[in-house]
Amino acid sequence: MNWFKKTTEREIKIGDWVNSYSKGIFRVERIVQEYYDESNRTILGENKIGDKFKNRTIISKKFLNSKMKKSISYENCSESCITFLSKEIEIELNQIIEQNPKLLIEFNQYAIPEIIGVYNSQLQIETAEELQKVTELLKFIENGRSFLEIENEMKKLDILKLKPKYFGNYNFQLFNFNHEYIEKKQIWREGKLTKKET
């Protein structure tokens, strides 16, 4: 059975039935164009801040497994992992939908859960004053901030110096929800500070 067609034949669009990173049949639900911003400095290579990522992110719902049986879930991957269905599989898929209309209804009702992106770093916090300043930063982040805005606020609070050369005594994490971007910058809406166990 031939499952695959190269995606170079046409542009991926919302509503397409496709193969994704995992085996099975998926439907494209959302397409995200991501951009390099200040949080990507270590992976810029020849790219500049503001440039598009070469491949978009495809968020899709899984409908059937490789045995053409119900398997409802979701996937979030690069479009480089996406291929279109072969004609043979398209025909079989349409037959299944025609014979099982309630299955498609159940599939359509399935809601993709919140997709969380995490930026991991560390801080070296030695005093109660420093800890209070980081707590203020966490409050600042709650309004939704770009990485550059967070860095500038750290400068304002004089806590950029808490970033260690190698390892710190606290884990400092930023959270992005559902690939949110504003003006080509990822938006971080939550921060978390966790003291390491010694």
Show the helix and strand layout.
Blueprint: E1 4-5, E2 17-19, E3 25-32, E4 57-64, E5 70-78, E6 83-85, H1 87-99, H2 101-109, E7 116-123, H3 128-141, H4 147-156, E8 170-177, E9 181-182, E10 185-186, E11 190-195
Antiparallel strand pairs: 1-6, 2-3, 2-6, 3-4, 4-5, 7-8, 8-11, 9-10
CATH architecture of the largest domain: Roll
Strand proportion, as a percent range, falls in 25-35%
Uncertain ranges: none
The total domain count is 2
CATH class categorisation of the largest domain? Mainly Beta
User: Count the helices. How many?
Assistant: 4
Strand order of the largest sheet: 1-6-2-3-4-5
List how many beta strands DSSP finds.
Answer: 11
> Whole-number average pLDDT?
94
User: What is the rounded distance between the termini?
Assistant: 55 Å
Coarse shape: elongated
Q: Structural class of the helix and strand makeup?
A: alpha+beta
**Main sheet properties:** 6 strands, antiparallel
The CATH topology annotation of the largest domain reads as: SH3 type barrels
Overview of the structural elements:
The chain is an alpha+beta fold and 198 residues long. It has 2 domains: 106 residues, Roll (SH3 type barrels); 80 residues, no CATH class. Helix content is 23%, strand content 30%. It contains 4 helices and 11 strands; from the N terminus they run E-E-E-E-E-E-H-H-E-H-H-E-E-E-E. Strands 1-6-2-3-4-5 form a 6-stranded antiparallel sheet. Strands 7-8-11 form a 3-stranded antiparallel sheet, covered by helices on one side. Helix 1 crosses helix 2. It is elongated. The mean pLDDT is 94.
